[in-house]
Known about the structure:
Layout: H1 2-8, E1 24-27, H2 34-40, H3 45-52, E2 65-69, H4 83-93, H5 99-110, E3 117-118, E4 124-125, E5 130-131, H6 132-139, H7 153-166
Antiparallel strand pairs: 1-2, 3-4, 4-5
Amino acid sequence: MLVVALVSSFVFLPVPVSASSCTVFHQARANDSWSRIAARYDMSLKKLLALNGAKTSTMILVGKQICTSDQPVIVIPDVTYKRKDVVAIIREVWPDEHEENALFVAQRESKLNPNVVGGSNDCCVGLFQIYYSVHRSWLSNVGVTEPAQLLDPRVNAQAALALFKRNGNSWKPWWTKSWRP
């Protein structure tokens, strides 16, 4: 009886919805605050609090793991592709009239290496360096639900073609000061 009474008197705090999807943690140290941690990781206080199911009044204990990102971690596959195979995939996916520009863009963006993850905070993925977090809402419509899927050269070429079409058959997402076809 006594054990049951003690157990029922504990209050269990809800686990934040995003806790299971957290991919980057900060270990709290002395004098940390929610706003200092948010600034350290260049994120909004609102986002940090949401990731941790916290309020500004929630106490931070030294040593506690604070979630600072729920962006999926991209694991580079062991599969390597030969340059000629990548070129063949791009030629197969893209319409004939756009093949050469597609090859130029993929060469410039990734040197035809489908396993490239680049940009600030590893934002851009694969052959055409698709910015996953910017395009994730519509990428799900073409079957891409995780950034790691964009490391498949065929999937990346298809996503790039979809992006090209979404922009009115324009190369604008890949324009530079020196290149605009």
